[in-house]
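RETRY 2/3 - previous attempt timed out on the joint model. Re-submitting the same 656-residue input unchanged.
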Amino acid sequence: MSAKPHETLATVLADDLAAVNGVIRARMASEHAPRIPEVTAHLVEAGGKRIRPMLTLAAARLCGYEGAHHVNLAATVEFIHTATLLHDDVVDESAQRRGRPTANLLWDNQSSVLVGDYLFARAFQLMVETGSLRVLDILSNAAATIAEGEVLQLTVARNIDTSADTYLKVVRGKTAALFSAATEVGGVIAGAEDAVVQGLFDYGDALGIAFQMADDLLDWQGDAGTIGKNVGDDFREGKLTLPIIKAVSKADAAERDFWARTIGKGRVEDGDLEEAHGLLTRHGALEETRAEALDWAARARKALEAAPAHELRDTLGDLASYVVARLN
Amino acid sequence: MSAKPHETLATVLADDLAAVNGVIRARMASEHAPRIPEVTAHLVEAGGKRIRPMLTLAAARLCGYEGAHHVNLAATVEFIHTATLLHDDVVDESAQRRGRPTANLLWDNQSSVLVGDYLFARAFQLMVETGSLRVLDILSNAAATIAEGEVLQLTVARNIDTSADTYLKVVRGKTAALFSAATEVGGVIAGAEDAVVQGLFDYGDALGIAFQMADDLLDWQGDAGTIGKNVGDDFREGKLTLPIIKAVSKADAAERDFWARTIGKGRVEDGDLEEAHGLLTRHGALEETRAEALDWAARARKALEAAPAHELRDTLGDLASYVVARLN
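RETRY 2/3 succeeded.
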C-alpha cells in the first residue's frame, strides 16, 4: 500500500466528507450559547481522522447509495463520538486530547458535560431527519451500549481479576459499538439486503476490537509520533489492557503482588515499567494479544465478503490490515 | 381544592403511573453494569413527584388516547429528566438532591456523567419504540434546548448584567422545554389536531416558566418542608434569579456594588441576606416577579382552552394555579 487506507478513503470520499464537515459546522452552532461552538470547534477541528464518519460514507457508497442521508448519518456518528470524548475527558480527568489541552482544562468540567449533552441531542435530531426508524433504533442502541461499556469499565477499574470476557464487553462498548453502528447504518440507508448489512456490522465490530487491542499493544512499543502517547502511559494510569489481563492470569504469587500494587493500587515506582514489560514478555502476553488483534483484523476482512465488490470495500479491507500492521 | 392537584393526577392516573414505574425499573437495568441501576434507583426512588411523566399521561388521556405508547413516552420524559439531574449535580457540585446525598457524592462524578448518558440513550430507545417520527423530533429538539439552556446559564453565571430576556431563555431551556415537550407528545401520540397540540405545548411552556419563577420567589419566603431548601440558598450560591435581575436593573451605584460583590464575586457576609431582601422589597422586585408568575400561570390555564373538556384538563388547570398559590 502506498497511501494509508484512511487517506485513500479521505481522497475517494472527499466530496462527501466536505458535506459532512459542512453539516457539523452548521449544527454545532447555537443561537443562544456561543460557548457550544467554541468547545466543539476546539475538538472537531483538532484534526481527528474522521474514521467513523468515513465508515458510514464508505458503507453507504459501496452499497450503491446515491441519496444524501449518509452525510447526515456520518455527521451523527461524529457528533456521538465527539460527545463521548468530551465526557471521557471529564471521567478520566484528562489534560490532553489529540495533542491539545482538553476542553475540561480550557473551559471547565461543566462545559464539557453540557456541551457533550448538546452534541448527543444534535446527533439525535440529525438521525430523526433521515426518517428511518431502523437507523434510529441502531444508533440509539449503540449509544446505550457505549455508555454501558464506559460504566462497566469504571466499575472494573484497577480490579486485576477482570476477565478477558469482561475486557471484550468493555471494548465492544467503548470502541466497537460505534464502529459497527457506523458501518451498519451505511448499509441500511442504502437499502442493502440483510446479509450485507450483517456483514457490514460484523466488519465494524471486528475492526473496533482489532483497533483497541492494537492500541493496548502500542502502549508497550511506543509510537508517540503516530498516536500521541508515550510508552507505558496506560500502565502508569493503571489501565487494565489485554496484555496485563493475560499476564495476571499466569502470574505466580509474587507477580500477583506486583500487579496488585501497580495496577490495583496505582503505586508505580522506578523500574516497575521495565519489570511489567519483562513479565508481559515472559508470559507471552504481548505475543498472544498480537495474535488476537491479527485474528480480529482477519475476521473484519472476511466479513466484508458479504458486501458487493467495490473499490471502497477493498480499502475498508486494507484499513483492517493497517490497524494491526504497525504492531511489531 | 382539597387534594393537591398533583395528588389528584397521581390518583386518577394511578394505573398508567404504575405501568410507567414498571417500564422505568425494567429499562434502568443493565446486564453488564450493575452500577447503572444502583445509581438510577437512588434517584428514581427518592420520591420525585413524577410531575413530568404525569403531564404526558394526562395530555394523552384527555385527548382520548386508548393505546399504550403514552406509558413509554412518560418513562422517556422521566429518564431525560433524571439524566439532566445527574449531570446538573456534577455541574453544580451539589451535595443534596430530593433530601438525599447526590449520586456524585455517593459514587463519583464519573458515575453520574456516564449513568446520565446511559439514561439519555435509554430514553431515545424508548421513543424509537413508539414508531412516531414526530414524537422523536419533538423530544430530540427538547433535549437540545435543555442542554443549550444549561450552557447559557453557565456562561451568564454571576454576570449581574444578565437581562430578563436571557433569564427567560435559560428558564425555557432548563425547565420549560421538558414540560412543554411532555404535554405536546401526549397530544401527538393521541392523534390530536394541531390546535390542541399547540395548546398543550403552550400550557407546558407557561407552566414551566411559572414553576421556575415561583421557585425563585420561594427562596425568599422559605418553605424548607415543601421544597427542601432554606431561605437565601439561591442568593448564597450566587444564582441570578428574576427578583435579583429586576433589583439590579433599578440599582443605584452603591446597590450595584453590593450585587457585584455578593452575586458577581460570591463574597457574601453577615447581614447581606437581610440587605438583599431589603433591596428586593424596596424596588418591588419580589412583587413584580410574583405578578409575572401569576400571569404565566394564567396563560397556562388559558392555553388549555384549546384542549377538549375533561376532568384531567381541569386538574392540569388547577396545577397551574397551585404552583403559584404558595406565593405570599
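The longest helix of chain A spans residues 194-221. Closing ticket.
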